[in-house]
């Protein structure tokens, strides 16, 4: 379980460029929930995710993951509880390292690293098995450099790496946004498959309202650094993009002017 | 042509600079940390070893202390960068400048002669091989041991974490790697290797001098880049071998250039030759690739 309470964060405090990114954001994600997060540019989606991961520390508020207050912990000390897939397909893996080396890094996420050989023989069966579930033939290319893979393949491996060891929450930061539509669909399908099979708790930021409704068990919309609505269960079933827009307008008395939200 | 003694001399120095190249590979290539501390940690290693040998220490203990001193210098640079957020290049220049004073303090004077003192080489002279081959043999053993240890380290969990830190720090943090600690460890080990090189250099040359570090960074880079031009560093072990090969080729090239009478070069031209060689090593691989591309595209 992960719970964020009254998170506040302002970039460039005291300067002309002062930008309040989070203004009292609160959200609790229960075990096994798959939450999709939408919002227009500048709504605070990425900042919220960075705050959960530890990449940016909040000015005030608390973040509790599995009953541990992690508010002040840097990224690497949260990594055992928080797994992450980045938007940039090149960001989640090391291109200069082989596939097996990347996976070996991920299998020790959040654990102590010693002086024993990193790429262990006993990992190989697990690596081959999870790679073969991608149906990309990567299970026979364990020694290949990550840089030889396409963006979609690398994002698929990033997803595997994030789910190789258990975590309290999996953060997905628009992880299909930089891929072509066909590859994006493949990675999204893979995402739901992994999350369902392993019963993961996940938070997926997306730019597309359609995608936000298609997958997951709950949808949250952010606006100006706050949650504007939060729907799950029966209320969410059968909902369409236009319903979401109506909901948004009703809640805020605003109209959505970000075309990409409508078109995505 | 090169005399036999000049040849062995070049290989001997090349082996020592191979250790420097290991250090520079670790900082520049693995950690992506341009570290100029080496210009200070090389004479620091020499100074510490020379002073302790003069004090009557066992030469291997003195050499080990030089390694530790080099590691401390590297750690200072890395801490300036990681904890105080000083730009890596600038942090290393600050440490390098500070080390000039520290080296003078350590030695108490600008240079120390080690002639007639017991060094790590002394027992080896009783072996039944030519005098000028002794340092080559010992330093070859040292560098092979260092290469194997470094290679094993790079393949370990911590070593892999260090490589990830240099290649993709954001990903490394997300995998729970304390990137700051990895930079401190890596730059420390890098300068420990350079301190070792300085200690061995002082013992083979019979003196430690406060100015002996000038340009070590360029020689190390020349060795690294030259080696990479000869041996493609596609794996860690190839990259490490490239460092050694590059350092030896570099010293041999210098020796040939200085010995070729028709060129009319003299010892004072050393730094000019170094600069030319480094430039060639950087430019030539690119020229080769574009030539190959041109030739293949014409065929097609």
Keywords:
heterodimer; A: 264 residues; alpha/beta; Rossmann fold; six-stranded mixed sheet; four-stranded antiparallel sheet; 23% strand; globular; B: 300 residues; mainly alpha; ABC transporter involved in vitamin B12 uptake, BtuC; two-stranded antiparallel sheet; 2 strands; cell membrane (chain A); ATP binding (chain A); P-loop_NTPase (chain A); membrane (chain A); ABC transporter ATP-binding protein (chain A)
How would you portray this structure in words?
The complex is a heterodimer of chains A (264) and B (300). With 264 residues, chain A is an alpha/beta fold. Chain A is built from 9 helices and 10 strands. Chain A has helices at 45-53, 75-78, 99-107, 124-132, 151-163, 181-198, 209-214, 241-252, 259-263; strands at 2-11, 19-29, 34-38, 60-65, 68-69, 82-85, 169-173, 202-205, 218-223, 226-232. In chain A, the strands form 2 sheets. Chain A has a 6-stranded mixed beta sheet with strand order 6-7-8-3-9-10, sandwiched between helices. In chain A, helix 6 links the parallel strand 7 and strand 8 (202-205). In chain A, helix 5 packs parallel to helix 6 (181-198). The longest helix of chain A has 18 residues, at 181-198. The radius of gyration of chain A is 19 Å and the shape is globular. Chain A starts with a strand and ends with a helix. Chain B is mostly helical and 300 residues long. Chain B is built from 11 helices and 2 strands, in the order ααααβααααβααα. In chain B, strands 1-2 form a two-stranded antiparallel ribbon. The relative contact order of chain B is 0.19. Chain B is globular, with a radius of gyration of 20 Å. The interface between A and B is medium-sized, with 35 and 22 residues.
């Amino acid at each position: 379980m992960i719970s964020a309470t009254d998170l506040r964060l302002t970039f460039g405090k005291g300067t002309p460029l002062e930008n309040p990114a989070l203004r009292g954001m609160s959200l609790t994600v229960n075990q096994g929930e798959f939450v999709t997060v939408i919002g227009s540019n500048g709504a605070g989606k990425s900042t919220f995710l960075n705050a959960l991961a530890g990449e940016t520390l909040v000015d005030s508020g608390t973040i509790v993951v599995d009953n541990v207050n992690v508010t002040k912990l840097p990224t690497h000390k949260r990594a055992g509880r928080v797994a992450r897939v980045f938007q940039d397909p090149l960001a989640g893996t090391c291109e200069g390292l082989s596939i097996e080396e990347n996976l070996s890094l991920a299998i020790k996420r959040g654990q102590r690293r010693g002086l024993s050989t990193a790429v262990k023989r006993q990992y190989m069966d697990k690596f081959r098995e999870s790679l073969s579930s991608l149906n990309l033939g990567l299970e026979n290319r364990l020694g290949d450099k990550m840089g030889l893979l396409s963006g979609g393949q690398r994002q698929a491996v990033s997803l595997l790496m994030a789910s190789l060891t258990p975590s309290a929450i999996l953060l997905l930061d628009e992880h299909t946004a930089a891929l072509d539509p066909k590859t994006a669909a493949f990675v999204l399908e893979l995402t739901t498959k992994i999350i369902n099979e392993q019963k993961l708790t996940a938070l997926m930021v997306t730019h597309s309202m359609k995608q936000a409704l298609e997958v997951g068990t709950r949808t949250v919309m952010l606006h100006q650094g706050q949650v504007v609505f939060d729907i799950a269960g029966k209320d969410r079933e059968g909902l369409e993009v236009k319903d979401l827009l109506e909901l948004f307008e009703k809640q805020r008395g605003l109209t959505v002017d970000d075309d990409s939200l409508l078109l995505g | 042509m090169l005399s036999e003694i000049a040849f062995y001399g070049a290989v001997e120095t090349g082996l020592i600079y191979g250790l420097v190249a290991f250090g520079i590979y670790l900082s520049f290539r693995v950690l992506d940390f341009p570290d100029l501390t080496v210009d200070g940690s090389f004479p620091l290693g020499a100074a510490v070893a020379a002073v302790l040998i003069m004090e009557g220490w066992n030469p291997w203990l003195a050499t080990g202390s030089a390694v530790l001193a080099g590691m401390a210098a590297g750690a200072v640079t890395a801490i300036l960068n990681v904890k105080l957020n000083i730009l890596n290049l600038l942090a290393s220049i600050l440490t390098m400048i500070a080390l000039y004073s520290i080296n003078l303090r350590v030695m108490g004077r600008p240079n120390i002669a080690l002639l007639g003192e017991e060094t790590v080489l002394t027992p080896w002279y009783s072996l039944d091989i030519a005098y000028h081959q002794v340092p080559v043999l010992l330093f070859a053993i040292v560098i092979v041991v260092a290469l194997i240890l470094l290679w094993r380290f790079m393949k370990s969990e911590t070593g892999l974490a260090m490589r990830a830190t240099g290649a993709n720090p954001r990903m490394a943090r997300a995998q729970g790697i304390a990137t700051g600690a990895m930079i401190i460890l890596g730059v420390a080990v890098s300068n420990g290797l350079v301190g070792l090189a300085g200690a061995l250099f002082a013992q083979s040359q019979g003196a430690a001098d406060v100015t002996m570090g000038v340009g070590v960074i360029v020689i190390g880079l020349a060795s690294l880049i030259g080696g990479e031009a000869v041996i493609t560093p596609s794996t860690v072990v190839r990259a490490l071998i490239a460092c050694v090969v590059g350092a030896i080729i570099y010293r041999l090239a210098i020796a040939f250039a200085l010995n070729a009478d028709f060129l009319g070069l003299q010892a004072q031209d050393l730094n000019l030759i170094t600069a030319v060689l480094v430039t060639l090593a950087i430019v030539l691989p690119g020229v080769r690739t574009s030539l190959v591309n041109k030739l293949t595209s014409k065929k097609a």
